[in-house]
Here is the input.
Amino acid sequence: MLRARILENKLSSLYKAGKIVGGVYLGRGQEAVSATLGASLIQGKDCFAPLIRDQAGRTAFGEPMIDCTRTYLGSVEGPMKGRDGNIHRGRPEMGMPAMISHLGAQVPLIAGMLFAKRLKGCLDGCVGATTVGDGATSTGAFHEGMNTAAVENLPMVVVVANNQFAYSTPNHRQFACADLVERAKGYGFGGHSVDGTDLLACAEVIGGAVRKAREGEGPQMVVAHLLRLSGHGEHDDGSYVPDSAKGGHYGRDCIEVAMRQLAEGGYATVDELMSWQEEAAEEVQKAVAQAQQEPVPDPYRENWTALSTRFPIPAP
Amino acid sequence: MSVTYIDAIREAQETLLREDPRVFLYGQDISNFGGAFKATKGLSDAFPNRVFDSPISEDAMIGLAVGAAIEGMRPIVEMQFADFSSIAFNQIVNQAATHFYRTGMPIPITVRLPSGGTPGSGPFHSQSMEGIYAQYPGLVVVTPATVSDAYHMLIDSVKLDDPVIYCEHKFLYRWLKSKAINGEHLPIGRARIARPGKHASVVTYSAMVHEAVRAADRLQADGWEIEVVDLRSVKPLDLDTVLASVARTGRLLAIGEAFPWGGVTAEVVAKVTEEGFHLLDAPPQRLNARDTPVPYHPKLWAAHRPTPESICDALRKLLSF
Ligand SMILES: Cc1ncc(C[n+]2csc(CCOP(=O)(O)OP(=O)(O)O)c2C)c(N)n1
Here is the structure.
């Protein structure tokens, strides 16, 4: 959580300094949800399709920090080689597919990865997870993917981060059911709700959903309630979010809540928390400095064709 | 004994399932029922747990196939009709087509699109979508016109590492027969001279190859020798073979069953004009379906797509320059 927040703060200042190639999209306020999901998954075994606000989940799942800075800065050394940017990155061969912009599209994709694992006979104990926002739950791809995963009874966990706004559109213009978790039943998913600002609750509910899926209880959907603490992207000041929401329960910062919970529960001392922060800041500095000195793609030297096959193929 | 075009498609899938454990079939009603056109008939009995019925969820069907390809499988997805692939458009052009470019990992999926018109099918069961998919970098788009090509090109499509849109023509399914499947075949990316000639070149693909050959047969009575080039794959497009034909004849007519705005025929004319302007003795022409949705009534339908008559008319005009 901390590493993601500190990294994102740095990305934000780089953006404001004009040093980032494209846009910057942050997960401030969503770290507890995202990190508990990423930490509940096993890299090398499970698959995880993170979404727009999942820096914390990516980090917890094991994505090296340098993947992020390289992608934002367009380094040719990054996983996307400067061909795609910001949050649209991944390492599919390591179980983390690269997201596309189109919301909802990763839901059936994760279902497909699980489906294939079952065909290969290596599904046992694996989980596939993805996250979506409240807005993405309105897409056809989301509905189709949820239904498909349920029909196939796949160990899929879908976490809906209901941060109350899709870009500027509030929940009441996005869906008409009282709570998105009601949908789980209709799809045939296990359904769970959680306070997304509460780390311990997230660990219990999201971790529990992952465990259920892993133990063969079928697909699971978790709806986490929270508020996005930044604009949609760093170009957006989020002025459409009313003060009442900002001052409400979900307007609290999950990191502050987590720090308090960790200190009060005896999980970490204040000193420890401080030193984690310092370590993270150092790691961020290093990753940014490294990516900044790396070459960017060269359109004249690089073969950046879109196919892997060289055509025409010679006759047999 | 004869083999139909759809038999060839079924045989190819059987061969692929037998030879490559990474292949599986996914689509609506394709398991016990054998598919809306019976292209997978009996395959679920022969290969239990390799042929799966999907929900009516075209978007999720391709999403699932892409996920499975990431895991090393080589899925073949059957769209019940090419028309419904518009629901899966996003997964095809954004997820599958961009994946290799973005991540370096190829997505070897094959999407079978039962394409083109048949009498009485109407606007939603008749569309030819090859031009739309060919527009997108990262996709291979094939359009077999013969029984042997239907077989070999499906096998080759699944063997390619890239996503392939395999456009099979519904009109050819049972209409087109062959004694046997040829052993010899051209690779994807190579066009074929379907009928040699010297006065004009018709460049076409899929079912229109047969209409063009019929038109050429008729014009032969008047002494015209029309060359018909079967593109086989519209992307990549074998411009060398097309230009060599135009060099022999000096005249070009590009024919397609798709709607007339843009598309494969426009691309052929543009490329030949750009690279072979000096070879042309007449302005290059093209002939497509009309610019309306595909009609339901067979009489309207027959007047909608190019026919031997309309092709002969277009060729006479071309030859009169
Ligand atoms: C299919 C689709 N339509 C529109 C967009 C543009 N878009 C990007 S993010 C976004 C809002 C997403 O809201 P939500 O799913 O609630 O996630 P959040 O941003 O709140 O985390 C929109 C409309 C998109 N990426 N995909």
About this structure: The first helix of chain B runs from residue 5 to 19.
